[in-house]
User: Fold this.
Amino acid sequence: MSQMLKVSLDELAVFGGRPAFAEKLHVGRPNIGDRDKFQQRVTDILERRWLTNGGRYVEEFEQRIAELCGVEHCVAMCNGTVALEIVIRALGMTGEVIVPSFTFIATANALQWQGITPVFCDVDPRTHSLDLAKVEEMITRRTTGIIGVHVWGRPCEPFALTEIASRRGLKLLFDAAHALGCSHNGRMIGGFGDAEVFSFHATKFVNSLEGGAVVTNNIQLAEKIRLMKNFGFIGYDKTDCIGTNGKLDEVSAAMGLTNLESIDEFIATNRRNYKQYEKELAGIEGSSLFKYDEGERCNYQYIVLDIEERQTIVNREQLLEILHGENILARRYFPGCHLMEPYRSYYPHAGLSLPETERLSQRVLCLPTGTAVASEQISLICEIIRTVVSQGAEARERISKRKMAFAQGAKLRR
Ligand code: T4K
Assistant:
């Protein structure tokens, strides 16, 4: 890593300087727990020749997740998307389901994939989660459920959503892909609604390579999901319902278990990184970090920077271009499902009722964090952001000119 300070715009890579980082700095570099422990577990799996389907490590992983969340049942799956699809089907959701557009595309896809219409609801700009008043407005005769998403791990008002869902006779599911280890009013995420879904994808702060889980206190639902994720089998050559293959394999479960043993260390690192970003980005007019509730348990796995263009002058897209030039691969999470295909074509007017989602999707970006990011790297990222925003007008003009020059060059080459 090069450690040069960048205090003038001329030093930025997009304007001819050397990139701040020789190697790309990703959002979502995996956290990896005790390697020896993982390798021992993999050796054990190979020696016992039990690789998937009812294996010891999957069972143990399920128990550990259920304990952490204080729920009775956990069914591990091959990823969070399939876990969503299966629980949506098991809950009998059909017709229309209310869901935020400001989420990862998998939340909407899990519905549309099985012919259910995701009805995109706007979010509260303070919480980035479902706007409760708007949820009520979107309920129709065809609505069968609500999916709340605990975006960035911040609980999306689960008590209020429970009240709405039970008053209106709707199923309630939470996409808790970001919220492992988080709490709401002192109660762990995992036990709200009819069920909650976690993701253990490589980019999640606790990963099982790929993986996901449904957690619930409803035993009938848990049993149904368990069958559905194993083709519907209730015995040799005997099925009970339509099922699919949603099983988590043993090596993934071993990775999940190993990483779960380091959860406290991962959260401490995420929190330290968050605090450093907070301190070193403080006072940059027009930029602010998404805030977590310090009174709750929180995993701090996302560093979400909000750019208010009226103050920073340079906008989010231009800042992203500059950061990418420095090999800081900040991400545009989330672009808004309704602005992506197929939803853009299916529901071309959805944006009319999603003004906050559209604003948010233009303003926020996620910065690198986790155990793979060093404190000096965070300092350099913050300094580059400060340099750019403090000279926002000039940065904007130079980036625009650069774009125009590229476009002209491309025209001449044609
Ligand atoms: N609901 C919500 C709210 C979610 O955020 C997600 C997933 C889901 C549901 C579905 O859960 P899963 O089916 O995924 O279990 C990523 C992840 O793929 C996705 O899991 C995650 N949310 C989403 C927020 O981010 P991409 O397309 O940005 O991921 P990817 O694979 O490009 O990785 C991002 C960066 O991480 C890479 O540029 C490099 C780095 N990376 C990635 C991998 C896989 C590594 O350094 N090492 C790796 O092994 O979506």
Notes: The radius of gyration is 23 Å. The first helix runs from residue 35 to 48.
